[in-house]
Amino acid sequence: MIQLALIGVGTGNPDHVTLAGVRALREADLILLPRKGKAKSDLVDLRRLLCRNLLDEAAQSRVVEFDLPHRERRDDYLGAVDDWHAAIAEVWREQMTRHLPRGGRVAMMIWGDPSLYDSSLRITGRLKGLGQDGEASPAVSVVPGITSLQVLTAEHRIPLNVLAEPVQITTGRRLRERGWPDDAASVAVMLDSGGAFQALAPEGLHIWWGAYLGMDKQCLIEGPLAEVGPAIVERRAELRERHGWIMDVYLLARTPLLSRPVE
Q: Domains in the chain, start-ordered, CATH in brackets?
């Protein structure tokens, strides 16, 4: 029987890994590290660093790296993602059965937290044949981690929501397609391929933007969207060209986050 631990490890700062995460890594028989190509080598480098720093001499964990399949770029976005997840599940299954043919404890380090715009938990549901009866999915446990939104608000020293008001978390794709969500005083945007906020009328909006949060190349910009929006688009393009990849997230609000909205 395979026991799989999904461990949230934050966004790039090794200090963000919780004690529970350290314990789960040390108790694992196998730690799987996904490689996402040369452009995103920083991500696997950080996981390697965590293993070197957190696995003590008593740990018996075997660390194995593997290549993740690439997602097809096609108009049928959800279909492409579904096929991609199926391919990833097959790679996970192959690695687990090859290195732990008699079962055991597997750990995977998840960027941020497995609960927020991450599909690791969905992929584990496809891992049939690794459970106790030879057909079910493996036993899964989750160690929560610090999300990019938490780091964003911490670095900008702001709350996530306007006082007593809701906040909506969405994607860049949805922001472009649907505009500002109804009844939201603030909107957090993730998985933006670049500048989805340009689809909004900027008047009255404030933005807090961050890229490579928690990493040594972290970059922050904030201000009225009408003023700093173009600078964010330009800076984002520069950073992506320099590093070959980028992860960014931002928060938009119609009302100052540190005050109550005017009735």
A: 2-143 (3.40.1010.10), 148-253 (3.30.950.10)
